[in-house]
């Protein structure tokens, strides 16, 4: 099974760690391109945060066509795993991009796994409607 990992770029290291666990279990894994850049130290998480705070991050997304690029990656996978840890005072945070990628997976009939329970956010009902499989931090539940 091929799995695309999605989540906040603040969780790039966690994405890598989860991906390595999945690879040891025999899964093929893909990480978001910008997360790969952070892990290769081509850009820092702090740079990304500054771009987001300053309003220039959207230009990075536009220039790299990141949304379409990851949609194409998701097309060629069997499932996505949303790495949703606590952020901004929200348990199991799912940001806008991750929510969008969940929607892509849903309409393409891909399995959707959430690392942690669905967060209390304005779009909780929509996440529930996509019927993700909650792992409660246990990737061995992926089958």
Structure description:
- With 143 residues, this protein is α/β, with parallel strands linked by helices.
- The chain has a single domain, classed as Rossmann fold (3-Layer(aba) Sandwich).
- The chain has a 5-stranded parallel beta sheet with strand order 2-1-3-4-5, sandwiched between helices.
- Helix 6 links the parallel strand 3 and strand 4.
- Helix 1 crosses helix 2.
- The protein is globular.
- The relative contact order is 0.18.
Subunit arrangement of the protein: single chain
Mean pLDDT: 95
The N- and C-terminal alpha carbons lie at a distance of 9 Å
Query: In total, how many beta strands?
Result: 5
Query: In sequence order, what are the helices and strands, one letter per element?
Result: EHEHHHHEHEHE
Helix content: 40-55%
């Amino acid at each position: 099974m091929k799995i695309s990992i999605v989540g906040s770029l603040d969780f790039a290291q966690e994405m890598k760690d989860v991906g390595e666990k999945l690879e040891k279990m025999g899964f093929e894994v893909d990480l978001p391109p910008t997360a790969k850049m952070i892990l290769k130290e081509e850009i820092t998480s702090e740079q990304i945060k500054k771009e987001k705070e300053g309003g220039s991050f959207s230009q990075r997304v536009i220039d790299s066509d990141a949304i379409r690029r990851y949609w194409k990656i998701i097309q060629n996978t069997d499932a996505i795993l949303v790495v949703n840890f606590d952020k901004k005072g929200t348990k199991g945070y799912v940001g806008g991009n991750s929510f969008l990628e969940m929607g892509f997976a849903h309409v393409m009939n891909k399995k959707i796994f959430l690392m942690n329970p669905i967060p209390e956010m304005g779009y909780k009902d929509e996440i529930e409607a996509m019927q993700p499989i909650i792992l409660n931090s246990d990737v061995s539940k992926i089958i």
